[in-house]
Amino acid sequence: LVLGLCLMKLVSPTDFGRYVMTGYEPHDLLGNLGVLFILVTYLLLQLEKVDVSSVLYSFLNAIGAGLILYSLFFEFNLSAFLIESAWLVISLYGLVRQFLKTPVDGT
């Protein structure tokens, strides 16, 4: 996109370097792993491989949101912070709810 803007002379070639990713830091990797956790969890849900009320579903979502939040401490984005904070809180609520459930007696 930026290269196309340079070619159309909307962005000068000297500014091009500011738009290109200069370094991939460890927090970028962890944030991307968080995205992968959330996307894989959603895929598993759509494929009916995981139940929405399962511990695994909430756990994977909580880990994903936590990793994304960690990456945001290095490159903050308010919108991403708000959605991932909510995602983490809701996932943690689901985990706590599952662990506090009274086991169903089979008799």
Task: Give the rounded overall mean pLDDT.
Answer: 86
State the order of secondary-structure elements, H for helix, E for strand. Answer: HHHHH
Instruction: Characterize the overall form.
Output: elongated
Find the structural class using helix and strand composition: mainly alpha
Radius of gyration: 20 Å
The largest sheet is: none
Distance between the amino and carboxyl termini: 64 Å
* pLDDT < 50 stretches: none
Helix content: 55-70%
Q: Quote the beta fraction.
A: under 5%
The number of helical elements comes to 5
What does this structure look like?
The protein is mainly α and 107 residues long. Helices cover 67% and strands 0% of the residues. It has five helices and no strands. α3 runs antiparallel to α4 and α4 packs antiparallel against α5. The chain is elongated and about 60 Å long. The chain starts with a helix and ends in a 7-residue tail after the last helix.
Summarize the topology:
Elements: H1 2-7, H2 16-19, H3 26-46, H4 55-72, H5 78-100
Helix pairs in contact: 3-4, 4-5
Quick take:
The protein is mainly α and 107 residues long. Helix content is 67%, strand content 0%.
Which descriptors apply to this entry?
107 residues; mainly alpha; 5 helices; elongated
